[in-house]
Amino acid sequence: MQLIASITSKRQLTIPASIYKKVKFSERQKVLVTEIEGQIIITPFVDLVEKLAGSLKVPKRWKGRNIDEIIENAKSEYFTKPKVNDLR
Fold this sequence. Notes:
This is SpoVT-AbrB domain-containing protein. It comes from Candidatus Curtissbacteria bacterium RIFCSPLOWO2_01_FULL_37_9. The protein has 88 residues and is of the alpha+beta class. The chain has a domain of 39 residues. The protein is built from 3 helices and 2 strands; from the N terminus they run H-E-E-H-H. A two-stranded antiparallel ribbon has the order 1-2. It is elongated.
């Protein structure tokens, strides 16, 4: 299926409704955008945590959170705790 879409001045592309429904996208869903020989391919992005759900034991404090949130939390915890060498 080929349809015409427009790109806004903010580089935003509106996916035609018929394609949006056919590929079962949802609002705020992340997509993978790939360029191959001048062609753009947009595919649904599956979060690694969601993809591995059930195959790994996830600590309760991480359940229901996306990986970006978990990483940001870990960074802030790591960089705000005093290091052993800093206490000397």
